[in-house]
Each structure stands twice: as structure tokens, then as C-alpha cells.
């Protein structure tokens, strides 16, 4: 054993560990060494792989590391924690003790900025507040829901003005907020965040050519319980697993089907079928999210009933066998996104192409976002033509002074300017 060990001193420790183990084991057996003794010998004589500690970064080094990530398509962030807006992507962070991270105790919604207008902003804010109530979240701007809605609208508008974009996606979160790493929100301050960004990853052919889709068995990915299914929380683990399972099978988003064979929804979209009888059907909002896009699509589809392209629009249970036999099948979400399903579980839907109702509804949704008049909110033109780092403080002078000092050291090349101290604006 000793001779065997001496011959296995390695010049390349990582590459030779297996040879060393085999040689030592064989040598130990041949020499009759007890296993425990052999293990002790190895611990004492075989050098451990040297560790490489991570560096302790300074304030400026940390900021420089964040800045190297680039803007990643993120244009502006409002944070109630800072009381303002920044357009520097390196500063678009949330506190590590915010319960949006610690426990996933937060809700969110997304609105489309289209042609300088926030498309149906009021509908999205109302759904956010309803989700917050179900999640037992305190409101960030006092106890009055109407006042909170107004202040949230101000924050969203200010982020859009700072982003200086005519078209973008705007996502906003209401969190139990920072304070500690506990389970309940006790000791936390509720927080509100708004991000203006370039949109979710997608493939243009999903709209023009359609997608292949699959159903995902409940045994592989269970559906959410009713409470989580009907509010828009940040807990999207099952949504992510559904889409991943679908892509493993050649699908895209994945469709959930209940134990009775009824379609529910896709991972983040509502499903709609056009039957051979000309009826447009979508499942009721029972144990699924009440999608704002599908609600608007049903309203806009009334014009297709009037034109004779559809015979009726109905919200009713939708069986999987009805989906297989449909003339058209599509998914809707994100205000204007409509993805025709051309194949489901390997079976062609209709003639296997993008159908006429799908095309017409796409156009109706797009036109409505750009020129419609239903609960839209116009964004005033930006006072600046060039994007730059900006921090808009919500009338908190003490906070603004301390943050200005901090940011000057963090981002030396960025210009931070206060655009407003008026409490009527962010």
C-alpha cells in the first residue's frame, strides 16, 4: 500500500484523483489495510484543491460590476424605496430583504405603452389592487385605494416620461417590501416598483406563422390552487415549469387541462377557440387568471359578430376535444399579443395555418392599442430628447440629498438631476 501510494504522487491533481483512488484502494486491499485507516491516510497526505475566495468589493467596484451588464433593454425604473426614477440600468435594483425576493410576497401587472399612451391602464391598476387585497398586502401610499391608484398612475407616468419612449412594456410590482427575512410582512414597509422595458423575449413567427402547442399532464406540473391562480402574484414557479415541460415536448407555452378534460389556460396566456359553428369560446375565470387581453378581445369580437364572421362570443367551459376540432385556436395575453396555435398535441388545428379570425383580432387589438379610447392614459412628451440617468424625487429633500451623494460615488460618469420636488409628481 505504501509503495502504491508513493507511486501515485500526481503532477496533475485534478486529472489524477481517480487513478490515485484506484491505486490506493488496490494497494490498501493488497496490504490488508483497514478502510478507515486508508481514509485517514488520504486526508492527511493528499493535498486538497486550493480554494479561490471571492473578493470583497468596494462601493465603486460593486457599481462598476453592475454597470458591465449593460442596459439589457431596461429604460427606466421607479422605486418607492428611493422615491424616484432612474434610467441607469446598473441602479435598477431592489433591496435584498424585500419580501418580493425573500418570500415571493408580491403582486404585479403589466401595461403596454403604445404610441405614447398607456393602453387600458385603469384596468391593469384595478386588477393589481384586487390581487393585493387577496394577497393581504398593505398599500404603499396610505390606506385609501383610490389615492394609491392615483399615486401609482403618477409613478408609472413619471417612469415612462423618463424612459423617453413611445412604445414599450411597463411592468409594476406591489410588494410587502423590505424590512427583514421573516415570513410575514411584520416590520416591512410596502414597496411599489415600475419598470419600463423593451418587452419579453418572443419570436415574430409566433404571430405570423403560428405555434405548435401541447397539453401538459397534471401529474407532471400541477395547476395552481384557486387563490394563486386567480391573483397575479410573483410566484410563477408552476408557470415556468409548464412552459419548460411544453418545450420538452415540442410545444411553446403549454396548456393545462383539468381532470375532467377541460382546457384551463396556458402558462401565462388565455386560450380561445373558434368552433365549426362560428362561436368564439374561452374558459370562464374559475381557477384561472382573469386576463385583461382576453376580456378586451371578447369585446372587440362583437364587431366580427356584426359583420357575420362570427356567430357569437361565449365564455363557457372548453373541452380539449373541442379544441382539437376547432377551426381556429389561439392564445392571447400582454394587451396585444395573439399567437395562433396551428398544431396541438401533434394534431393540426383547422387547415394547419393562421386563420382569418386570428388575423382580424390581431389587427383589432393593435388598432385599439394605438387609437382606441377605452381607459387609456396619455403620457406627456419628455422634457429631454437624449436619454440620461435621472432621479426624480417625490418631495423628500432629506432622502434626495443622501441619495445624490451616494449615487455620485456609485456612478461617477452618470448625471443625476432632480426634476421635481413637488409632491404632486414623481
Write the layout of secondary structure elements.
Elements: H1 2-6, H2 13-31, H3 35-45, H4 59-67, E1 74-79, E2 84-86, H5 99-102, E3 106-114, E4 117-119, H6 121-134, H7 145-163, E5 168-175, E6 191-197, H8 205-208, E7 211-213, E8 215-216, H9 226-230, H10 237-248, E9 255-257, E10 263-266, E11 270-274, E12 279-282, H11 292-300, H12 302-306, E13 312-315, H13 320-325, E14 328-333, E15 337-344, E16 347-348, H14 356-371, E17 377-378, H15 397-410
Helix pairs in contact: 6-7
Rg computed from alpha carbons, rounded to a whole number of angstroms: 28 Å
Please state roughly what percent of the residues sit in beta strands, choosing from under 5%, 5-15%, 15-25%, 25-35%, 35-45% or over 45%. Answer: 15-25%
Low-confidence stretches: 1-22, 383-426
| Structure summary, number of beta strands | 17
Task: Give me the secondary-structure category.
Answer: alpha+beta
Distance between the termini: 76 Å
Q: Helical amount among residues, as a percent range?
A: 25-40%
Give a description of the structure.
With 426 residues, this protein is of the alpha+beta class. Helix content is 36%, strand content 19%. A seven-stranded antiparallel sheet has the order 2-1-6-5-3-4-17, with helices on both faces. Helix 6 crosses helix 7 (145-163). Mean pLDDT is 85; it is low at 1-22 and 383-426.
Amino acid at each position: 500500500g505504501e509503495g502504491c501510494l508513493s507511486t501515485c504522487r500526481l503532477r496533475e491533481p485534478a486529472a489524477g484523483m481517480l487513478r490515485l483512488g484506484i491505486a490506493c484502494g488496490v494497494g490498501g486491499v493488497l496490504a490488508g489495510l483497514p478502510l478507515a485507516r486508508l481514509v485517514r491516510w488520504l486526508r492527511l497526505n493528499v493535498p486538497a484543491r486550493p480554494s479561490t475566495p471571492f473578493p470583497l468589493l468596494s462601493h465603486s467596484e460593486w457599481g462598476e460590476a453592475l454597470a458591465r451588464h449593460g442596459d439589457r433593454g431596461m429604460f427606466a425604473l421607479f422605486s418607492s424605496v428611493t422615491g424616484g426614477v432612474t434610467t441607469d440600468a446598473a441602479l435598477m435594483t431592489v433591496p435584498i430583504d424585500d419580501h418580493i425576493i425573500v418570500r415571493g410576497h408580491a403582486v404585479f401587472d403589466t401595461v403596454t405603452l403604445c404610441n405614447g399612451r398607456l393602453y387600458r391602464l385603469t384596468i391593469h391598476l384595478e386588477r393589481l389592487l384586487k390581487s393585493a387585497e387577496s394577497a393581504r398586502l398593505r398599500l404603499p401610499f396610505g390606506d385609501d385605494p383610490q389615492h394609491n391608484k392615483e399615486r401609482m398612475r403618477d409613478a408609472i407616468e413619471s417612469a415612462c416620461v423618463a424612459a423617453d419612449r413611445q412604445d414599450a412594456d411597463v411592468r409594476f410590482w406591489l410588494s410587502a417590501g423590505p424590512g427583514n427575512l421573516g415570513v410575514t410582512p411584520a416590520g416591512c414597509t410596502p414597496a411599489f416598483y415600475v419598470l419600463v422595458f423593451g418587452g419579453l423575449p418572443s419570436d415574430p413567427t409566433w404571430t405570423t406563422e403560428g405555434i405548435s402547442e401541447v397539453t401538459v399532464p397534471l401529474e407532471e406540473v400541477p395547476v395552481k390552487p384557486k387563490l394563486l391562480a386567480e391573483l397575479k402574484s410573483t410566484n410563477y414557479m408552476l408557470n415556468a415549469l409548464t412552459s419548460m415541460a411544453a418545450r420538452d415536448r415540442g410545444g411553446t407555452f403549454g396548456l393545462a387541462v383539468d381532470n375532467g378534460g377541460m382546457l384551463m389556460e396556458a402558462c401565462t396566456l388565455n386560450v380561445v377557440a373558434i368552433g365549426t359553428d362560428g362561436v368564439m369560446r374561452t374558459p370562464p375565470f374559475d381557477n384561472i387568471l382573469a386576463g385583461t387581453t382576453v376580456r378586451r378581445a371578447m369585446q372587440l369580437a362583437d364587431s366580427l359578430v356584426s359583420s357575420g364572421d362570427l356567430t357569437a362570443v361565449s365564455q363557457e367551459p372548453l373541452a380539449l376535444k373541442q379544441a382539437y376540432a376547432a377551426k381556429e385556436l389561439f392564445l392571447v395575453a400582454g394587451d396585444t399579443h395573439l399567437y395562433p396555435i396551428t398544431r396541438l398535441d401533434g394534431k393540426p388545428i383547422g387547415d394547419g395555418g393562421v386563420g382569418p379570425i386570428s388575423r382580424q383580432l390581431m389587427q383589432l387589438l393593435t388598432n385599439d392599442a394605438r387609437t382606441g379610447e377605452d381607459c387609456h392614459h396619455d403620457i406627456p412628451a419628455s422634457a429631454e430628447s437624449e436619454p440620461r440617468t435621472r432621479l426624480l424625487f417625490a418631495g423628500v429633500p432629506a432622502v434626495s440629498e443622501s441619495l445624490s451623494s451616494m449615487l455620485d460615488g456609485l456612478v461617477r460618469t452618470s448625471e443625476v438631476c432632480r426634476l421635481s420636488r413637488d409632491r404632486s409628481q414623481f
